[in-house]
Amino acid sequence: MGDGPVDPRRRVPRTDTLLADPVLATAAVALGREQVKAIVSHAQGRARRGELNPDEVRDAAVAALPTPGPRVVLNATGVVLHTNLGRAPLSSAAVAAVVAAAGHTDVELDLVTGRRARRGRGALDALAAAVPDAGAVHVVNNGAAALVLAATAMAAGREIVVSRGELVEIGDGFRLPDLLESTGARLREVGTTNRTTLADYAAALGPETGFVLKVHPSNFRVTGFTSAVGVRQLATLGVPVVADIGSGLLGADPLLADEPDAASTLRAGAALVTASGDKLLGGPQAGLLLGDVEVIERLRRHPLARALRVDKLTLAALAATLHQPDTPTRAALHTDPGALRERVERLRDRLGADGRKAEVVPAVAVVGGGGAPGVELDSWALSLPERYAVPLRTGDPPVLGRVVRGRLLLDLRCVPADADEAVREAVLRVPGED
Ligand SMILES: *Cc1c(COP(=O)(O)O)cnc(C)c1O
């Protein structure tokens, strides 16, 4: 070092500065501040003893964090519910509820009587209150589990009548027909891929019928010469109708006019509605079951229900999400494009000041994750040379964008507004000039 003897101890980054680093701050939430502080002090100590350069302290602390579970990433893909990124991010109310529920809880105990109580009644009561059209409700591990429970309890050894236009693959090679048949129920397929009529269903009904299943085509669209039968008509057939709405929308949302919601589907006559908790509801992974009292009671008492039981953390997050439905998912869906544009322009300007040439471009965001396949959300993205894609994805925190025609697009719609600075720093960490 040419500028004379500078005491390296004076240049060791301060604890506050280090704990404000996005990665260390996130770790402090996950692991507790004390544990991360101990890791930080250890790295500072090494720098004071001359074992590390002061500018290596942060990286050493990050490297010393315990083996992480899933890593926190910044979702700049413009896909609101990205299955590979864990679908819905929890609201801060739900996060606080999860943290609070991590110790001993009264999840299955009535504190007044001192006796066992219905597990997770806080979440169940909140779900029932959110959808008064449901006679009763139950919660299992995910949407697939909800369907498996319904098929097992209501149709094992018998038939599930379903349209050939609704035999859906939900992703990663998992297909609903296989899932349903794994329960011992038989599928009675009716109609064709593009057209199924009420008469097709009626002709298939008989003593073997367990229920008629209506599956929402949540991740694709069939257009052209098509016809399908709605729940209202199916409910006239005199057998129970189970509707898999997928998305978890509890009430109608004008932005998502083609998405069925639980309340309307029950009013149309479904005996049972199944849905996911981590799609449009914006909550934890869960399978929601809403329907007639006798149906829900039968599912709840079925031996398989015990194997699909949800964790107290999920119940805590679900209850909080239902009490405060202003989730990050809802915010991302309803963000004003003008405000997004301003954020992207500010980011571009600040990067420009540091010599990085980025552009502001209009983009189209989508709901994703098995929801609203036809809906396009006007959005804005920061456009960078494609060479940024890999270093940003493998950086810390990872920033995920979308490569379109040789450019990396970072759509800020699903990036929390207070993370724009983290995006800027991540871009600046990518070496090189533009
Ligand atoms: C997403 C989806 C499922 C599967 O739900 P998971 O919660 O992912 O298990 C089933 N059916 C439909 C229509 C869906 O959209």
UniProtKB/TrEMBL annotation:
It comes from the Bacteria. One of its GO terms (cellular component) is cytoplasm. The keyword Transferase applies. It catalyses: L-seryl-tRNA(Sec) + selenophosphate + H(+) = L-selenocysteinyl-tRNA(Sec) + phosphate. Its EC number is 2.9.1.1. Pathway: Aminoacyl-tRNA biosynthesis; selenocysteinyl-tRNA(Sec) biosynthesis; selenocysteinyl-tRNA(Sec) from L-seryl-tRNA(Sec) (bacterial route): step 1/1. InterPro entries: PyrdxlP-dep_Trfase, PyrdxlP-dep_Trfase_major, SelA-like, SelA_trans, SelA_trans_N_dom. Its cofactor is pyridoxal 5'-phosphate. Converts seryl-tRNA(Sec) to selenocysteinyl-tRNA(Sec) required for selenoprotein biosynthesis. This is L-seryl-tRNA(Sec) selenium transferase. It comes from Micromonospora arida. The gene is selA.
